[in-house]
Design brief:
mainly alpha, Glycerol uptake facilitator protein, globular
C-alpha cells in the first residue's frame, strides 16, 4: 500500500480515536451535572474509546494496520511485525491527527456557555495525570506501573488477535473490547493513556500541568509496548519443524 495512504489512514484513525474518546469525556461524561441520567459517565467513556478503535480498525486496518497509537507502532516493531523505517512517520501522523481532533474538540466545547479548562483539576480537557492530576490521586509510581502493564497487555491482545492463526475478521472486536477494559481499570488512576498521541493531543490545550507530566505518558506506554511486543513474539512464535 502507498505510504501516503497509510499515513493518511493513521492520521484519520488517531483523529477519530481522540475525537470520539476524548470528546465523550469532555462533552458527554457529565452532561447536565452530577446525577443527570443523560451523562454517559465512566463506563460510557471507556466504551467510547473502545468503539473508536473497533470502528477505526475495520475502516483502516486493511490500509495501515490501524495502529493509531505510537506505543502500538513501537510494540509491533519490537515484536517483529513492523519495519523500523516506518516507525517515525507513523508516529508523526498519529500525533498530528490527534492534535487536530483535540483542536476541533476545543472549539466545539467552547460553544457552550461557561466552558473553561481548569488545568489545575485532574482530567482537565480529558488530560492524563498523576499525583494531584490523577482522578484518584494516585502516585507517580502507581501511574507508571499501571500504564506500563496495561499497554503491554494491549500489545499482547493486538498481536494475538492479528496472528495468522487467529479467527479471521474478529481482531478489531477483540482490540476494541481490550481498550474498553483498560479504561475501566485505569480511568481512576491516570485517566487512561496507553497512547502517547492521545495524551499529547489534549495536553497541548489542557495547560502547563498536563504538559509537565506528559513525559510519563510517552515513556510508560512505549516501554509497555516494547515489553508486550517482545513477550508475544516469544509466546506466539511458531514451533520449528522437527
Amino acid at each position: 500500500m502507498n505510504m501516503a495512504k497509510r499515513l493518511a489512514a493513521e492520521f484519520l484513525g488517531t483523529f477519530w480515536l481522540v475525537l470520539g474518546g476524548c470528546g465523550s469525556a469532555v462533552l458527554a461524561a457529565k452532561f447536565g451535572g452530577d446525577g443527570n441520567p443523560l451523562g454517559i459517565g465512566f463506563v460510557g467513556v471507556a466504551l467510547a474509546f473502545g468503539l473508536t478503535v473497533l470502528t477505526g480498525a475495520y475502516a483502516f486496518g486493511h490500509v495501515s494496520g490501524a495502529h493509531f497509537n505510537p506505543a502500538v507502532t513501537v510494540g509491533l516493531f519490537a515484536g517483529g511485525r513492523f519495519p523500523a523505517r516506518d516507525v517515525v512517520p507513523y508516529i508523526l501522523a498519529q500525533v498530528v491527527g490527534g492534535v487536530l481532533a483535540a483542536w476541533i474538540l476545543l472549539h466545539i466545547a467552547s460553544g457552550a456557555p461557561g466552558f473553561a479548562i481548569d488545568g489545575s483539576q485532574a482530567g482537565a480537557f480529558a488530560s492524563n495525570g498523576y499525583g494531584a492530576l490523577s482522578p484518584g490521586g494516585y502516585s507517580v509510581a502507581a501511574a507508571f506501573l499501571c500504564e506500563v502493564v496495561l499497554t503491554a497487555m494491549f500489545l499482547v491482545v493486538i498481536m494475538g488477535a492479528t496472528h495468522g492463526r487467529a479467527p479471521a475478521g474478529f481482531a478489531p472486536l477483540a482490540i476494541g473490547l481490550a481498550l474498553t477494559l483498560i479504561h475501566l481499570i485505569s480511568i481512576p488512576v491516570t485517566n487512561t493513556s496507553v497512547n502517547p498521541a492521545r495524551s499529547t493531543a489534549v495536553a497541548v490545550f489542557a495547560g502547563s500541568g498536563a504538559l509537565s507530566q506528559l513525559w510519563l505518558f510517552w515513556l510508560a506506554p512505549l516501554l509497555g509496548g516494547v515489553i508486550g511486543g517482545i513477550v508475544y513474539k516469544w509466546i506466539g512464535a511458531e514451533p520449528r519443524p522437527g
